[in-house]
Amino acid sequence: MDSSTLRVIKRLTLIATLFALVVIALGAYTRLVHAGLGCPDWPTCYGHLWAPDSVSEISSANIAFPDAPVNLDKTWPEMTHRYLASSLGLLCLIIFLLGFKVKKTVSKFPFRHTVALLILVIIQGLFGMWTVTLKLWPQVVTLHLLGGFSTFGLLLLLHLRLTQPIKPVKETMIPKIRLLAFSVLVILFGQIMLGGWTSSNYAAMACLELPLCSMAQLSSQDFVQGFNLLQQIGPNYLGGQLDGGARIAIHAMHRFGALAVLLLSLMLITTLYQNRYVKLALALATMLIIQLLLGLSNVYFGLPLYNAVAHNIGGALLLATMIVINFRLYQQRKKRA
């Protein structure tokens, strides 16, 4: 019985991981079409479970929310994102409950991992609420994005822990590779945070030159305002509240972060390849090239919607690649121990 339950958990973690990627993509789409406040209340939408659609319902909603008239082009992305995210939370709850069922009978079942995952999705739900009630306050929007990527990463890691066997190891270079791989993972997560901060402050188009911003723009950077974590709560942050200099500073830092990820990743790719981790090296190189091209295309083509969504998906897949690499190296450390 427990073995069949464990098989169900393994399948659910895979489904939930893929589902989390869809939620990340839809969240990016919702931000990019400025639909984050498509429904000004939470958890309902103008008091409805979906959105007002009849003439009388829309008229009543506009009277109830005079500062946020109904725009059906923005209500559907917001509510679809809410319901899909809630469904993902339900999946994580089911995984937790099934894990609780088998934790005493399945050897080394990572139950604490399922606890952490459940706590994270609960926090994500709160951030989803605050995103609306605090009117897209950049700090909350950025943390909500990071929470989404973290949920995706934890689900992937849980699936790996449940399904991947320990493999033999070439011992000589593992400690150095492991340290470098973990460093890339940390820097990448920081870069994702910068990407979230860039998006939540609407700074993606602050600099249109490649590969660097113009000297005039760089000289006008305002890092104090750009990275002010105490922005006032209350204003509507749809479209952003920062001036041009602050947005340029944010955008420039995101580019420098990308450069740091690129350089460290190239070092890791070389080291992996030299130590016969060819598949891992090729996977990382492929994702790195795709993500770099998507980022450059965002600037060159003026932030086209589906390219920008793909850039978010690419960030998640690059994170997944680094999680797999670190997991493989960690497995081998456990084997030697």
Strand fraction: under 5%
What is the average per-residue confidence, as pLDDT, rounded to a whole number?
A: 92
What is the string of SSEs from the N terminus onward?
HHHHHHHHHHH
Radius of gyration: 22 Å
Number of strands: 0
Largest sheet: none
Percent of residues in helices comes to over 70%
Please give the domain count: 2
Oligomer: single chain
Features of the shown structure:
single chain; 337 residues; 72% helix; flat
Written description of the protein model:
The chain is an all-alpha fold and 337 residues long. It has two domains: 1-163, no CATH class; 171-337, no CATH class. The protein is 72% helix and 0% strand. It has eleven helices and no strands. α1 runs antiparallel to α5 (138-163), α4 (111-133) runs antiparallel to α5 and α5 crosses α11 (305-336). The radius of gyration is 22 Å and the shape is flat. The two termini are 32 Å apart. The model has no long low-confidence stretch (mean pLDDT 92).
Short overview:
This protein has 337 residues and is an all-alpha fold. Helix content is 72%, strand content 0%.
Describe the secondary-structure layout.
Elements: H1 2-32, H2 55-64, H3 72-102, H4 111-133, H5 138-163, H6 174-200, H7 215-219, H8 223-226, H9 244-274, H10 278-300, H11 305-336
